[in-house]
């Protein structure tokens, strides 16, 4: 298939201009968040690619702080929902309230009606509550009683979960996990970063003030620019090969992976890998996607979309191990 002619130089200049606000966002978040550049970059990827993010990490790694800081810098409406075992779906999406003065029922909208939703410790709530997010995350709308209400754009769910606690938690259903564009694993800061964290939180009276440098309209405009970024057919084929290798590794010369994989990535994995690659190119101020963009975000897009067999778990093989194997075997264009 012959690609339509694309003026890469003009596209580069447009993307460079449209992505200028990224520097302002990074400057604001770095006032409060020390290190964790990887996490901040992934949050921006989700924001630009219109994809929800699941953050997994130990307590105290600034997951919640990073999300609140970003929402302040974007000047968007922010709501935090603390997930607990006694939470009800109505506590998230809202419910009908009887008004005795008017002798009628009126809608009381829940905290889901915001731009940024922080679903804190999402795995602490039962499946009924977790599933209340499904319609909002996929269709960007909420149904209360018989009425459907569209959610305000940009709409982004940023969920956190603790990987070490099992008591009192409910694993997310595969159907819901697949709704997240990225699953990001957060690690510890290094010694120098932790020293700066101590200075910021102990020696100062309060955390620095975050100035709103971006508005929601600028984010929506940037999302349109992300879609315009050029992706060659060879890059698309590379993405397809990676995802298909998670489903049928034997056809790519990786027979050893077949007994380790229960199921591979869905078509949603291919879509999200392409969109996230474009968003990553946007953050690099570039108007076209290169294979390294795909490889850079591949683990975050695929790690929650590959099911492991009991054999893989018995051998302590992780999704990351399988993804690295696939990236090493699939031919790079």
Can you give a write-up of this model?
With 333 residues, this protein is an alpha/beta fold. It folds into two domains: 29-219, P-loop containing nucleotide triphosphate hydrolases (Rossmann fold), CATH 3.40.50; 229-329, Helicase, Ruva Protein, domain 3 (Orthogonal Bundle). 47% of the residues lie in helices and 16% in strands. The strands form four sheets. The protein has a five-stranded parallel sheet. The longest helix is centred in the C-terminal third of the chain and has 17 residues, at 267-283. The protein is globular. The relative contact order is 0.16.
Could you state the order of secondary-structure elements as H and E?
HHHEHEHEEEHEEEHEHHHEHHEHH
DSSP summary: helix tally: 14
How much helix, percentage-wise, in residues?
40-55%
Q: How many domains in all?
A: 2
Strand content: 15-25%
What general form does the structure show?
globular
Secondary structure tally: strands: 11
CATH superfamily of the largest domain: P-loop containing nucleotide triphosphate hydrolases
Query: Structural class from helices and strands?
Result: alpha/beta
* Cα end-to-end separation: 16 Å
Gyration radius, rounded:
21 Å
What CATH calls the topology of the largest domain is Rossmann fold
Q: Taking strands numbered 1, 2, ... along the chain, how are they ordered across the largest sheet?
A: 2-5-8-1-9
Mind telling me the CATH class of the largest domain?
Alpha Beta
Could you name the ranges where pLDDT drops below 50 across 5 or more consecutive residues? Answer: none
